[in-house]
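Technical note accompanying the year-one report. For the benefit of new consortium partners, we illustrate the data format agreed upon in the data management plan: each record pairs a sequence with a structure-token string. No post-processing was applied to the example shown here.
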Amino acid sequence: MNSLASNDVIVLVHVYDQDDLLEPFVRWYSELGVRRILAFDLGSTDGTYDILSDLASRYPLIWSQLDDLDIRNYSGSTTGDHLAMYARETYAPEWMLMCDADEFLCVEGCRFDAILDKATAESITALSIPCFNMTGTIPAKGDPSLSSLTTRIVEPYGETFEEQIAGATPVPFIFVKHPVKSIVKSAAFSSYVPGGHGANVEYGRRELVDCLRFNHYPMRSYAKFEKKVSNAAQFLRTNDHLPDWWAWHWRRWVNCEAQGQLEDEYRRQFVSIEEQRSLVADGLCVVDESVSIWYQSLKGLIKPAPKADPLALNTLDGQKLRIAALEAKVKELGRLAKSDASLVYAGNLAASLIALSSSGAPAASGDAVVDDF
């Protein structure tokens, strides 16, 4: 991954019953080169405490628990503001990056440190990073979503304010545009907008960076979705002063659960293999295995060549690595598959393999543009 030797970045994250994501999240950002990860747990009951304690002994992670979910009781207007102010006062980082545990920052065709250096030179104090939802076929039981969900939605639907209030959109939530996140100069930080989607600064300019992106994995197992909705309901009850547009998708899911429609809502967030092919052909989605291949390497499912960068999407070695991983996974699933879901997943991987194998060689890494956002 990219080095951040010349920049001081701290990651701010809230976690809430996301034990399936904690280790990959911490390792991903540690390998990216951030100095520290500050995590606030919102009251998890899934073993998060033990996982965070273990990770803190091995990585630059500091975590604590927020016992009060009422955002009116924190400095600033949200718990995100509280976390950012604490980070600035305690650690004085140059940059702060606020994201969720299901959001993985991907660097493609540029260097992270070069972007931050350029921003400093041009008095840019807030970098807006686009976020893209990830989907695919419904994960089989025990199937890691970071590995299997490789369809990135690049042309999402922009919902209206009226649709937010009504909690109804013409497309499933996963196809609704996910708002940007921000990397902000600590000294210039003023506050975050709701959900941490963007930051207000006291001085300087803001700029959209198109060679950085967040891959967002909001839908994983149904059990995790059920727990997310339960936690959302508790949060909304505690913060009943919030307007109806605030976390509109949470309100929709709480209503779905009350009406016995939550499982149907969950299934609508995924697509069949045929639908994936059509979406990619129409330019609405792309195949993106940047996180998937890294995760498989992390878990020992594949062994990267020495000095190989699993995230180097624009290199021939990176493409070969993805193909090798898919070949191994397809063979493994074909041998072990005992359910229709496993066979569907194997077919999905096989389709991706065919697409990769038949594609042209990617541009050489030396052709990457570094200086332009």
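Partners are asked to follow this layout when depositing records. The first helix runs from residue 22 to 32.
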